[in-house]
């Protein structure tokens, strides 16, 4: 992080050894947690961890069948969860969604903006405008708008936790050549997060970025399924090799590292699953 960044936590001396709380110690009883992309992958695992910590859940994604499965799983375990099937690429929907959730379930205390798309991938001069726009809507604009919808009630409560799920490639943009749109959109998301953290300093509402690591999800599978010749640059082959060599971590592993940080009061942080190792 550059010097003079007011959103950066003030530290003196060497960086502390990260200590990760067991999520079983985190008490979110009575809090409403909104998780986007909660139908599968990392978002689903995050919802499970939040429910374990006592939170009530609002689960958001497009696939109603996947959301229903997660809602039923959580309900069977004794948690309260509601499913909201919504397309986050649709700005009008997102603008209304926050108010709808709060009307139904009351004020939100936790917002995990996890939904994301990695496509389009491939040579930048062959990308369609529609695909580039879709990526920015889902990866950057929707989290900004959904966050805005919950800010008033979080500020009023003097407590809130907003986590925006990003990617480690923002720190190493050259590592994902042929993924230009994704890197650009997630970089925008991170800049938004740190800027908002500074704006909300002292309110009790924290804003963090979370980089989840290489996780074995449908998103990784989608990349492996692309045509290596069309994408080019050895990108598809590299993802296939990570899968073959067993390098990917589970969604539950990554989710636990995210949820374990929600007790922290520090804001404007970029959290990485690697810090939890
Ligand atoms: N897996 C990794 O290795 C990895 C690495 C770095 C960062 N990440 C980030 O982690 C987050 C979760 O990824 P994942 O790997 O768990 O992916 P995933 O399994 O593909 O899940 C993505 C979730 O986002 C939802 N989503 C996508 N487009 C949406 C839209 N237009 N409206 C509403 N919901 C939408 C999907 O549901 P529907 O399709 O049903 O809408 C799904 O629930 C993403 O932000 C991703 O960029 C993942």
TrEMBL record:
InterPro entries, alphabetically? KR_dom (IPR057326), NAD(P)-bd_dom_sf (IPR036291), SDR_fam (IPR002347)
Q: Which organism is it from?
A: Actinocatenispora sera
GO molecular function per UniProt:
oxidoreductase activity
Family statement drawn from the similarity comment of this UniProt entry? Belongs to the short-chain dehydrogenases/reductases (SDR) family.
Q: What is this protein called?
A: Ketoreductase domain-containing protein
Please give the GO cellular component terms listed in this UniProt entry: membrane
State which residue ranges cross the membrane.
Answer: none
Mind telling me which CDD domains this protein's record contains?
A: SDR_c
